[in-house]
Amino acid sequence: MTDVYLSLIAGGVTTRRAVVLTGLVRSTAARRRTAATAPTPVVSAPSAGAPVNKLTDLERRRVLEVLTSDRFVDLAPLQIYAQLLDDGVYLCSVSTMYRVLTENTLVAERRRVARHPAKVCPELIATAPRQVYSWDITKLAGPVKGTYFDAYVMLDIYSRYIVGVQVHAHESGVLAKELMEQVFKVHGVPQVVHADRGTSMTSKTVAALLADLEVTRSHSRPRVSNDNPYSESLFKTLKYGPEFPECFGSLCDARQFMDLFANWYNHEHRHTGIGLHTPADVHFGLAIDKAADRRVVLTDARTRHPHRFATARAPKILDLPDTAWINRPAQDTTEEADTTAA
Predict the structure, then answer these.
(1) DSSP assignment string, 196-211
(2) Terminal CA-CA length for the chain
(3) 121: left (phi over 0), alpha (psi -120 to 50) or beta
(4) d(CA 116, CA 300)
(5) Which long-range contacts (CB under 8 A, 24 or more apart) does 29-38 make?
(6) pLDDT tens, position by position, 121-162
(7) Can you give the pTM of this predicted structure?
(8) What is the CA 176 to chain-centroid distance, rounded?
């Protein structure tokens, strides 16, 4: 019907009349008419051989000789291209220069690039209190927007006991040293003190104190918050608590709040990381007896209502860990899993 439609149009019949006579849809007829009258596209023959504008092998060797000459060996192709034009010489385009250099594996970073050695991942273990202390500084919002107080907090990673807390109007290595001297005098000198890489933590004042006491300094890797997990976890408990205020009215208010928080955390808070004991019980060696008392209570309850207990073992969350790690080695973790499976 398309041929009939086209012949009617060629004979002077209007398109409206032609579609009525042929029964075609007008849009379809128009589309077929356009396709029938469109010129046939010219199909180019496939390219054979190299491009006509490609440099010869001799020209490419010449380009390479110029690029690696004493005059241009330390310059970028764009600079070489411009200097050659100023000298009245055109060898090739800048992209061709790069292609020649790439073919000869000569494209690389030629400037002196700083190569910082990889920071060692801290791996610390504590098997008893007073072995490894972790400390950090957190900001407490002051009465005016943009003002903050600095809370210095140090804790024992094995017992989670807060061994020292101070709040000051600013941060400095001298104040950090005062905190450590107070903590060491009351709780004893630890083997290791771990912190992140803040200015106070890496200050010469703190470094000199720890060196004099023969305490090993340990620092987190740059931009790795997981290297100081105990302090970060403590600050989350602090700031997500229901009584933590949006801001403090004064430095005195901040100090009073932190003292109350430390007392609650040490003596009332049942910590999930230490078998739901308080940090004070673990720090001062009371947790073992309390764990035995808990087992007696559970045994009595199991005797009276055995159907309510799936196993004879106490819940694992009540287990008191014998070690506390910062970045436990993967090999050690694997060995423990194998032992548990056996």
Answers:
(1) -S-TTTT-HHHHHHHH
(2) 84
(3) beta
(4) 61
(5) 29/2, 29/5, 32/2, 32/5, 33/2, 33/5, 33/6, 33/9, 36/2, 36/6
(6) 999 999 999 999 999 999 999 999 999 999 999 999 999 999
(7) 0.66
(8) 28
